[in-house]
Amino acid sequence: MKAKTILLDVDGTLYDNANKRVLPSTIKALEKLKARGHNIVVATGRAYFMLYSIEEITHLVDHYILINGQYIIVNGKTIYEDIMDTNEIEALVKVLQNFNIVYGFQSTHSEAISDVNPKVIEIFEEIDLDLPPVDINFYKQNKVYQMWCFCSEEEARKIEEIFPNYEFVKWLTSGFDIIKKGQSKGKGLNIFIDHLGIDSRDIIAIGDGDNDIEMIAEAAIGIAMDNSTDKLKEAADYITDDVSEDGIYNALKHFNLI
Asked: What is the CA radius of gyration of the chain?
């Protein structure tokens, strides 16, 4: 078989958040992919420093599409990055504060949050991420690639109306990524393809969240985990098993990749 490029989301796809592990079957599947000459790409909303939950498989990864497509690493080198404007961040912060919403900032090597409360602690525990330090002035000293906020769907959509150039993309829990409109894993995938000159017909993508929709749509074969959101399942070409039930292994086996 001609070498394929497989894009894999982290939370709910490579990583079983509920059981806090990468399944042995997933590790086995990735090892078989490598042995057959396929390319493995991690495509996630996380930054590189946040990949500690999958550290046992990062040696198998060839490339990274990070922070929802806003930071791309190919063969160990950064080939693309897109940061938020400081003035726009300041305007977003003021509105989020007016709504009394906890928010956060994400850079390539660090992060921060505006406040910590029981709900925020619960959210980070659910996705098995370390709780960021509190620093409301983080954006004044650091490049910010995306923001987060922790609020209701209704509140997120109200703020989205105020900032039409930004999208609030829901986490699997109660959080939202705040990213520039038009930025996505799908856009990141296209930049990645153009950089390496890959045939788009050789791209396979697997994910489970709303932030995977554009990536799934751009791939030749888009696969949704059974634990995916309804929106992602609608966009997918194929639905595999749950992350906790060997979903990755079974999908790759189904398409004769391993």
From this structure: 18
How many helices (H) and strands (E) in the chain? 9, 13
Type of residue found at 222: G
Structure tokens belonging to residue 101: 């919403």
Please, what's the b/e burial string for 123-158 (b: 16 or more CB within 10 A of its CB; e: otherwise)?
bbebbbbeebeebeebbeebbbbbbbbbbeeebbee
3-state secondary structure of 64: strand
Q: Tens digits of per-residue pLDDT, 215-236?
A: 999 999 999 999 999 999 999 9
- pLDDT reported for residue 7: 98
Could you tell me the residue ranges of all domains in the chain? Answer: 5-81+183-254, 86-180
CA 176, 236, 39, 23 torsion-angle sign: positive
Token pair of 249 as six digits: 């292994």
Nearest CA to 135 among 110, 100, 118? 110
Give tens-digit pLDDT for 51-74: 999 999 999 999 999 999 999 999
Helix (H, G, I), strand (E, B) or coil at 124: helix
The single residue listed with the structure tokens 């990055």 is 81
Measure the CA–CA gap between 227 and 243, rounded to whole angstroms.
Answer: 7
Domain topology for 5-81+183-254:
Rossmann fold (3.40.50)
Tell the residue number behind the tokens 């910010």, with chain if given: 144
* pLDDT tier for residue 193 given thresholds of 50, 70 and 90: very high
Kindly state the greatest CA–CA separation across the chain: 56
- CATH fold of the domain at 86-180: 3.30.1240
Element (H, E) at 127: none
